[in-house]
Write a structure and sequence with these properties.
Number of helices: 10
Number of strands: 16
Number of domains: 2
Shape: globular
Largest sheet: 7 strands, mixed
Radius of gyration: 20 Å
Helix content: 25-40%
Structural class: alpha/beta
CATH architecture of the largest domain: Alpha-Beta Complex
């Protein structure tokens, strides 16, 4: 089967940073689905793994943590899907990725693809939807009745684009998104944010500019260490801070004490990495996202389609994600 992989941890500008390869076809067993991949999207985790985790000598690693496709075959213990089903999923960090014509994935991590979306539109959603859903509803404990104000730092990115929609559609929170350019600020408004501020400016001053003295919740999705002091100042007493990004410097948690602020980490691969008893919650929430999409309450966050799934186009996509200037998700489709 066709696949795109890497053998060395190299800069994306290197000729061999990603390679077109032919690999043996995988075989589904147990609770695995064998999926024929139609479309994928690229996430920051693809870039981080490629740059920092070289495969063992002589081996090639296939990346890709978002896919939409069709079930080709099922393992002997599968009960949730059958061949021919259209599915979307983010897979697992410790398994072969989706940048290949065929991929095996645990059925508990898989959702039924929204009927109203194309494969490319659907591939933009799984990893970010899981991250945003778990961060908002499981880590921060927000419910449909929660009131207050949510500040999303980095709202125009992949996770921010779906988190903005979830918070606006499913909660009573006032949703404030941050973005730095006119085009990304317009995007965040389109997705439903009540207010948009510029995170290049001090956050507290920007919030006061729109008439908000404090927020009850913050989802910090990027450059948290740069905004940390401002976030702590902006949070109301007993407020909550959720993080997803990889920090480049330690955070002083002692700053949280005077206001009794709480700190929550979200990593959507935790369930699959540790084989938690509630792994099937990820498939269930993807099914819920699909229902909301088909009901017209959520939309795909596809930002740009980079064409066929091959090494050349994936290198362009990795470079775009590395630039940290993308809007929504970068998608590739077909082999």
């Amino acid at each position: 089967m066709k696949a795109v992989a890497y053998r060395q941890a190299l800069p994306i500008t290197a000729a061999d940073a990603l390679l077109d390869l032919t690999l043996p076809e995988p075989v589904a067993s147990g609770r695995e689905l064998l999926v024929r991949v139609h479309a994928v999207s690229v996430n920051p985790v693809d870039v981080k793994v490629r740059r920092n985790a070289a495969p063992p000598d002589g081996e090639a690693r296939v990346l890709g943590f978002d896919a939409a496709g069709v079930v080709e075959a099922v393992g002997e213990a599968v009960s949730l899907f059958k061949p021919g089903d259209r599915v979307f999923y983010a897979g697992a960090l410790n398994q072969r990725g989706s940048n290949a014509e065929l991929q095996c994935v645990d059925e508990r991590l898989v959702g039924r693809m929204p009927a109203t979306l194309t494969f490319a539109q659907a591939a933009a959603l799984p990893l970010t939807s899981i991250t945003a859903w778990e961060l908002l509803f499981e880590r921060l404990g927000v419910t449909a009745e929660t009131e207050g104000a949510l500040l999303i730092v980095g709202a125009a990115g992949g996770v921010g684009s779906i988190l903005t929609q979830l918070a606006r559609q499913l909660t009573k929170l006032t949703v404030i998104g941050s973005a730095s350019r006119d085009s990304t600020q317009a995007w965040v408004r389109e997705l439903g944010a009540h207010h948009v501020i510029d995170h290049r400016q001090p956050l507290v001053a920007e919030l006061k500019r729109i008439g908000i003295d404090a927020v009850t919740h913050v989802a910090s999705l990027t450059h948290t260490e740069s905004h940390y002091a401002q976030i702590v100042e902006a949070l109301a007493p007993q407020g909550q801070l959720g993080l997803i990004d990889d920090l480049t410097a330690p955070l002083d948690v002692r700053l949280l004490k005077p206001k009794s602020l709480s700190l929550h980490w979200e990593m959507m691969f935790t369930r699959s990495m540790f084989g938690t008893p509630d792994m099937a919650e990820q498939g269930a929430l993807l099914n819920r996202v699909a229902e909301l999409v088909d009901a017209g309450r959520l939309r795909s966050t596809l930002g740009e389609n980079f064409g066929r799934i091959n090494a050349e186009n994936l290198k362009r996509a990795h470079a775009a994600v590395e630039s940290a200037s993308t809007r929504g998700k970068t998608v590739l489709e077909g082999f």
